[in-house]
């Protein structure tokens, strides 16, 4: 898989104009209303850059990680360094909007270098992109206009600080708007939770838990056609618990039923639930229930 370690080499590969800054490029719609068009197709590639892009008119599917996304209705999406990108000539890049690309080293020595790691939407798949209302869209465009203006000015000792400040503001607004999107899509989040629980039930009843071990969060998310971070964020907003907390709760609930069997040892229960290390299972059980598996079994027998 081809990897691009510099912004210039990445843009050159895309057949886009070179950046005016070695670590930052800003594209906004030209007088004809469209952004510059990248090359028609590409096999899987990666790079060391962040991308923030708003596409208003695009036809076709773009592969981002394992996911296909139809951009026809437009969306704001975020791509982090070393994410896998792929597209073919069925994608029509007749897009309006904006696109900001910056190398991860552009943030070095700034507070945003640490803050950007908390923004989970850089790990979302594109089918989890941010859909803006007209008012929200205009707010984002105003910020990008300021970034673009500073980008085109003669660079001085204040330029980077000002651009970083605008980028930070843009990301804070994105976090706010994603929060709104999660709230407005509560029904979808609830459905995702139901699908998550059903997947665990099917996995357990098929016997795969004992044979293959506890499923990874990555595998669970992949089966639900969402990214790990989006699944965890969605469940967290819906229930207050992360994906791993839901998984552990399910396993402990199953363990509580299995511990009632007088013929099973604690170690056997642990192995049947996919735990390779029974002591770890016992520690997790005590953390969740306040008592050890043995104490739980003895308490139940006493009652």
UniProtKB/TrEMBL annotation:
Gene3D superfamilies: Homeodomain-like. PROSITE patterns: HTH_ARAC_FAMILY_2. One of its GO terms (molecular function) is sequence-specific DNA binding. It comes from the Bacteria. It comes from Phaeocystidibacter luteus. Keywords: DNA-binding, Transcription, Transcription regulation. This is Helix-turn-helix transcriptional regulator. The keyword Metal-binding does not apply. The keyword NADP does not apply. InterPro entries: Homeodomain-like_sf, HTH_AraC, Tscrpt_reg_AraC-type_HTH. Pfam families: HTH_18. Residues 198-299 form the HTH araC/xylS-type domain.
């Amino acid at each position: 898989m081809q990897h691009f370690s510099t912004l210039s080499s990445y843009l050159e590969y895309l057949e886009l104009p070179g950046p005016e800054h070695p670590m930052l490029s800003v594209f906004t719609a030209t007088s004809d209303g469209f952004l510059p068009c990248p090359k028609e197709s590409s096999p899987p590639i990666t790079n060391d850059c962040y991308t923030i892009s708003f596409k208003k008119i695009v036809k076709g599917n773009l592969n981002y990680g394992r996911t296909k996304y139809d951009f026809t209705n437009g969306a704001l999406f975020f791509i982090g360094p070393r994410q896998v990108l792929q597209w073919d000539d069925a994608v029509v890049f007749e897009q309006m909007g904006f696109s900001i690309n910056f190398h991860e080293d552009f943030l070095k020595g700034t507070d945003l270098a640490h803050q950007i790691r908390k923004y989970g939407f850089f790990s979302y798949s594109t089918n989890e992109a941010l859909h803006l209302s007209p008012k929200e869209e205009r707010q984002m465009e105003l910020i990008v206009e300021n970034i673009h203006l500073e980008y085109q000015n003669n660079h001085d000792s204040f330029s980077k600080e000002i651009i970083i400040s605008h980028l930070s503001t843009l990301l804070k607004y994105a976090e706010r708007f994603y929060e709104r999107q999660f709230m407005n899509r509560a029904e979808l989040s609830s459905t995702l939770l139901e699908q998550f629980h059903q997947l665990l039930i099917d996995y357990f009843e098929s016997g795969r838990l004992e044979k293959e071990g506890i499923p990874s969060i990555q595998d669970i998310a992949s089966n639900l056609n969402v990214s790990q971070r989006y699944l965890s964020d969605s469940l967290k907003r819906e229930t207050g618990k992360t994906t791993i907390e839901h998984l552990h709760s399910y396993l402990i609930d199953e363990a509580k039923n299995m511990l009632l069997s007088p013929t099973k040892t604690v170690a056997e229960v642990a192995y049947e639930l996919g735990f390779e290390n029974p002591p770890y299972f016992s520690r997790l059980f005590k953390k969740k229930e306040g008592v050890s598996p043995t104490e739980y079994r003895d308490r139940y027998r006493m009652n």
